[in-house]
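Delta(24)-sterol reductase, pasting as requested.
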Amino acid sequence: MVTVGDICKYLIPKGYTLAVTLEIADATLGGLAFGVGMTTYSHKVGLYQETIVSYEVVLGDGSLVKATKDNEYSDLYHCLPWSHGTLGFLVGLELQIIPVKPYIHMKYIPIKGQKKYCDLIRQYSGAMDKDKETADYIEATIYSKEKAVLMVGNFEDADIAEKSGKINRLSRWYKPWFYKYVETFLDRGESDEYIPLGDYLLRHNRAIFWVVESMIPFGNNPLFRFFVGWLLPPKPAFLKFTTTPGVRAMTFTKQVFQDIVLPMTELERQIDVAEELFDTYPILIYPCRIYDHGEKTGQLRPPRKDQMCPGTNWGMFNDLGVYGVPSAVKRRERFDAVEAYRRMEQFTRDVGGYAFLYADTFMDLKEFKQMFDLTLYERVRKKYKAIGAFPHLYEKVKPEIDVFKVGKEYIDPLS
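Structure tokens follow.
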């Protein structure tokens, strides 16, 4: 299995990188292909699936096929993203790569005021202007309802970066976690620096965005980083192996891990709803194009007309990343996780968004079909003999535990 870390080490010295990847080194390219991937370049090219040229897949009858967007298996090609291994086994991928320079010139722009930072995110990403020249990489981290840092990065040559004297090799084990470092610009003011491309692409790897803070609250302490920071991040396989039933229950009743794709026209409401339901910061924002592919859109419903960028076949959406411990849990107050998640899912359906399916879902099948269009998916399952060989998508991604029962058991604060 080729990982993001593997492909970065291979491509960057040759002057290339994947157009869309993920900031976690142990994530596999196949997992992203059958799930979903988004990064800070997605405002230019869309989701990971838009950069896949072909899939080589073993079907339910054992046959090997190569699916592209315009060959005889084009229907399969459009349904494989978000299918989570329910249509076949992936054995090969052909992906688009882009030419790069060895450094990213990164500008940090601290912003106060929700409307101001939401407007600037839309402006910098070209959400409503197809002709706007946008930066190579764009993201925002929201630290409270009224405070955010917008990050705008462009490829840069080595000689310019090295002459600047402002190189930050931020992936070194003793460096501050990236989101903690970015937060300092709220007080320091606007600034810029140069980051080696490999460091930038995996900037959230050591702290798994900010998830590790929930596991190791002192993990960003300078002494901890210096002496044992090289141990991070914990391996996903290790976390799964050591997750007991009790820990599994609390992973959704006492913590939140959600990535949701939502229209950028609703950015203010996204943040309001996330604060109302979970009240945990930071919140991650990645702008991303969502394309309307007509009849071959696959499981993703196309953007609504009022969400489209004028003169294009795409609308600007964004990843809303909410990770951490809800404030009610921190205060040892009653927190109904199931109710909170279901209300977030209802909001997502109402505005035409999509929940990343790596996380727990609390929808019944009818609600799931409202969020995702399974029309082509069901035809493809039958046509390519997936029925009986692979589970249905809904059965594959729904929680393996009774979340409604467990949720009731853990509503009240732990003693």
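Note for the archive: The radius of gyration is 21 Å.
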